[in-house]
Amino acid sequence: MRVLFAVFPVADHAFPVVPLAWALQNAGHEVRIATHPDLVGAVTGAGLAAVPVGRGEDLAALTDLSRNPALSGHPGGGLDVGPGDCPDWGAKWFRTTRVFAAQRPLLEELTGVVVRRRPDLVLWDPFCLPAAVAARVGGAAHARLLWGRDNIAWLRGRSARYRDRAAPGGGWPEPLEETMQQLLEPYGLPYEEELVLGQWTVDPMPPGMRLPAPGVRYENVRWVPYSGGVSVPEWLHRRPLRPRVWATPGTTGMIGSLAESEIELVSAGDSEPQVPLAHLLPSCSAVVHHGGAELFASAAAAGVPQLIVPKPTWDEEASAAQLVRKGAGIAVSGGEFGPDSLRTLLQEPSFHERATAWRDELARLPGPAELVPVLERLTSHHQRI
Questions:
Q1: Terminal Cα-to-Cα distance of the chain (whole angstroms)
Q2: How many other CB atoms sit within 10 Å of the CB of residue 255?
Q3: CATH 3.40.50.2000 residue ranges in the chain?
Q4: What distance separates the 2 farthest-apart alpha carbons in the chain?
Q5: Rounded CA gap, 198 and 135, in Å?
Q6: Are residues 34 and 4 in contact, defined by beta-carbon separation less than 8 angstroms?
Q7: Taking the model in full, what pTM does it have?
Q8: 245 three-state secondary structure
Q9: How far apart are alpha carbons 65 and 380 in whole angstroms?
Q10: SS3 (DSSP) at 277
Q11: Could you please report the per-residue DSSP string of 261-273?
Q12: What CA–CA distance (Å, rounded) separates 263 from 265?
């Protein structure tokens, strides 16, 4: 089977595909990763074959998230869907469709890759709609591969329900229509919902995170941490004398004097390029972060208690809520966070016990290798070649 991954042009979206790509490759399938030229080194460094797409300046706003309010922490630009009713869902769906539209320059290149290489299966980032269109042109089966909670399916469903119920006469200007017309018109293709939501969806997030999305078929897979191939420093082989705490940028200053005498503080800004998560997390007594999907899922898989100070951008508040439900950590607002929160997390045994139990629960989910035969069957069923 020939498999093509289409990755959004950001490293945080590229790394989560690596374990599944390895599993497919180890099972004898031909694997290629289509991604921006800036990420080719990260892909080949993982022992995988890269196909550069999106050359030039067309995707500059996406490769530099600091200039993209739709995906960064810009005050008006988060795409988070909180635990409530999300009253501003319409604005967030509009911004989501603008991210879709920004990848229009990928369409011709991805279609060319599909037509030339004839993959049997295309696994695409939820933002990368051109990959779904390219798969449809080439007759390949295709599915979304999530890297966080499926906000897109929920927002799409919410928009469709509003259109059908509140504006049956067509008064609701569906922002997806313009984007899809631009993608489909060059190939004379009709609109199909699978071009936005996939023929199925691979979901690596811990159970309990999923939003209701009728009509979407999900296949669970266990999250396997991967953050790049780097050497393990000598200090990591030594047992820490004090509880080791890994804290991401923006949280270390809030820990204060606790780091001086009670813990061994490891700053993610200093250590992340040198220490892969899979090696660092098992040695930690706690992780302090803003709730990003990669660290949340990786720490849960390692059985490490977490202290989350949510910074809403995508699914950070949902991660914090799931952590609290599992009893595997603490969630506090930025104004409430201080040394006492971390001290409680470290000193109360129940957090470690429940984090360990959660780790064991997650370990029973199918791993990437177990998902391979599922993908083979689904590909055979959906392929149109």
A1: 13
A2: 22
A3: 2-222+366-382, 234-363
A4: 68
A5: 10
A6: yes
A7: 0.90
A8: strand
A9: 37
A10: helix
A11: HT-EEEEHHHHTT
A12: 6
Name the architecture of domain 2-222+366-382: 3-Layer(aba) Sandwich (3.40)
Rounded to an integer, what distance in angstroms lies between the CA atom of residue 343 and that of residue 119?
52
| pLDDT 10s digits, 47-101 | 999 999 986 555 555 655 544 545 554 444 578 886 567 888 888 999 899 889 8
Query: Quick check: 261 pLDDT over 80?
Result: no
Closest CA to 227 of 149, 283, 175, 279: 279
Q: Give the pLDDT band (50/70/90) at residue 255.
A: confident
Chain-centre distance for alpha carbon 114: 24
Nearest CA to 249 among 235, 228, 265, 264? 265
- Whole-angstrom CA distances from 262 to 93, 258, 377 are 45, 6, 53
Does residue 237 have a pLDDT over 90? Answer: no
Q: How far is CA 35 from the centre of its chain?
A: 15
CATH class as words, domain 234-363: alpha beta
pLDDT at 74: 46
Average pLDDT of the residues in 119-129: 96
Q: Which amino acid is at 88?
A: D
From the centroid of its chain, how far is CA 321? 18
Burial per residue of 155-183, b for 16 or more beta-carbon CB atoms within 10 angstroms, e otherwise: bbbbbbeeeeeeeeeeebebbbeebbeeb
